[in-house]
Structures are given as C-alpha cells and as structure tokens.
C-alpha cells in the first residue's frame, strides 16, 4: 500500500462516527469544551489481602473496558458553534502511557490519609479533558491512593487490624459519557474483574494496549428512547426562554445564590462527612414514618445548615436571604429500560425553591412534597427541562452569556442512593474450587477477596452552576457525603462550618421528630 493510501486509510478510520451526542450529552460536552466544568468522580474504598499492582489493575481494566463501550469513546467537537458533537472510537488505549490517566500514590501516615484523599480528589477535579486530547486519550482517569496505617510514635503498618490492604480508587470521568450511577457501575465491574483475574493464564500476553472492537457500539442517547418534547405545559416557559436566550430559571421569588457568575473556572474545594450505620439506620426509620426520602431530607438539611452558618459567620449576607433555589438531579434509567450496571448519561433535574426557615423539623411538609415531586418527575420526561436544551442554538454562547449575571442556583443535592452490595465483593466467600492443571495434578484456586466498603461521589466546580453541591452515596448502611464549592464563590471557613453543621443536623434530626 502506498503512503498516500495509508494516510487515506488512517484518515478514514479516525473519521468514523459512532453517533451524534444527545441533548444532555451535548450540554455536558460544550460546557466542558469551554472550561466551565471538568468532571465527575465516584471514588470507592477497596480492601484486599493482596496488594494492588499496576499490572493487576491494567488486566482488570481490560475486562472493564470490554464491558463498557463508552470508556473507549472519544469526542469530535463540531466545527460550527451551533453544530452537534459526535462520539468516535478511540484508536487504542496505551497503558504504557498510563501516567497520563492513572495516578498512583500512598498516604504518608494514618492521620494524614483524609487530607491526602481530599487533595487527590481536588487535583483530579481540577484536571480537565483538553479539547486537543478528546480524540486520542480516554475520557476518564483513575487515582489510586494506598492507605497507610503508619503512626510515627507507635508503629509502621501497611495493613489494617484485619491484615488487609486498603486503597481509595477514584474514577474521574467526562460527564458526557457517564452520569453518577455510571461511576458506581464502573466500580461494580472493577471489583468483579479484580476478583476474577486468573493468575495461571495470560502469561506471555501483553496488556500494554487495549484496542476497542471494530464493531464498538454505544447505547443510544436517552432522548432517542424517551420523549423530551414540549407540550402546552411548556408554552409559557418558551417565550421567556427564547427572549432571554438562556435556560429559564422561572424565578418568581428573589433567590440568594452567592453573587455573580464568575468569568472562569477556579479550583474545586471539597470536604466530606460520613454518617455511620447506627445513625443512618435511625434516621431512615424516622424518615420512613414521615414518608420523606433521604434526598428530600438532605436538601432541606443543607438549606438549614446554610442558614445557620450564614447567620453566625456572614450576618450581612444572611439578611439578604429570603429564598434559595436548589437543583435536584434524578435518573431516567428506569424509564429508558436501563439498569444501574450500564454506563450512560441518563439524567435530568428539577429546581426547588425553599424559603428561609427557623427550624428543620417544621419543614416536614416541604420534604414530603419534594419526595412526591421527585418520584413523579423521574418517570415523566415530556415538558422536562432537558428538552429545552434543543432551543439553544449556540450552547457555548449561552454559557458565556451568563458571566457577570446573578447566579440562578444556590446549591445542588445529588444522591446516588444505596449501591448494590452483591456487586461490591461482599458476598459470602465460596470454597476454593479445583481446576485442572498440567497432567493429572490439581491445584486449589483460592477465591479473591477484593471488596468495596465505602464510596464517595463528587463533581468539579462549575462556572455557571450552583454555588455549592452536596453529593451523597450509601454503601452497606454507611452514607458518604461530599460538599463541593468553587474557590472564591464561598469562603472556605463558611463551607467547612456548613459540613460540620450538616453532620450535627443529620445526627440529631431523628430525636427531634421522633422515631
């Protein structure tokens, strides 16, 4: 084949389009392409009696990549501002260059682990997917943080009290290829792959390169399956929407949202808290008696914490607050016929106004109402706000047009719910199985014991998004909450106090309303 023919063939392969981006995918692609938002992270705490080597992780990732086609996709940006991005297959994923998308670290000491964990999450959140790499590098990254149990004044240990080695494995990804539940699906696949690596096979096999199959096929965008059309209910919204050339807030009240939209993305800040099993169990029993969902409760708990902290630390700003506006994402997977094991971008959201209140236990009716609205809206796509994206010709212009204007969202509450314990390596261990080896000899293969014991869910800062976000996920009756904000939007001491206040509110709420 001549050089010209080779170049032509290569050009042809690189121009293969898997499909065009759907509405929410386009929204996420354009927002990231102008550096207004970076990524999502679902991080999980892994535990095993065996160490995690780069080779073992790469072998497991080959299995994960085979299970989830979107992890082998790249993005082709449109040439025109009003164009639609497309998904294309990556030529390959080269693990010899994994330093570009896999980070390996170890905690210094037991006491410094939490700080180093936060640092890793922030650095991943602050690392964008550059436009020039969208067609050649994966749209995901992994951060591995080995937990140290070293205590300078007592002992040095790399294992916990059970003799197990612990790792935080953070999966960071472009929002266009996956939603929050997709991050959980990644960990379901990874822990299974780690537990099923056959040490006796694969010798002589090179794991350096992963080449996607030639027939790589993505799931269709959710708006190809679901009806995101606009009916009479939307008519009143459209006029204002088109007139302002921005997504509507429909604010009939004065909403406090921490000031103006900044010009550019600043570093992501995070803090997190853990709700232990006993506290969570007590809380869930109390909420059940009131017919309130955990998501609705966390929404009002975050508002309560904000009001309390602003009153104590920012009295002038507190006086300005009359109402806050909250975005509450929800999944359309059930309507699309997709379960929680697949990776896709299948979400919507509702906006919810909360008036300033004095006591959280007096807001039960509001929590009940939000619970019912979320349940209903997660099954109704027509007239939802996702469909309004189709009215925006130039999404980049839409985002940039918000700079300098009042922010429209105070905070967001996103809850992944309870992860499936059966898919996190927590099943009862099976007895070793016998496998045939050379000749008549037999060997007992001991079952692997990788398992996930905790998880965290977080998002990067967003230029035009809410002033802060509250992200929750439950693993084995333990609730992990990450509160995220962008540097300069809210003061660090305010947000750190807000996290502590939320912890107090969650712990004490059950006793206030009765069990």
UniProtKB/TrEMBL annotation:
Highest taxon of source: Eukaryota
Pfam families reported in the protein's UniProt record: AATase
SUPFAM superfamilies: CoA-dependent acyltransferases
InterPro entries membership: Alcohol_O-acetyltransferase, Atf2/Sli1-like, CAT-like_dom_sf
Recorded GO MF terms: N-acetyltransferase activity
Protein name stated in the entry: Alcohol acetyltransferase
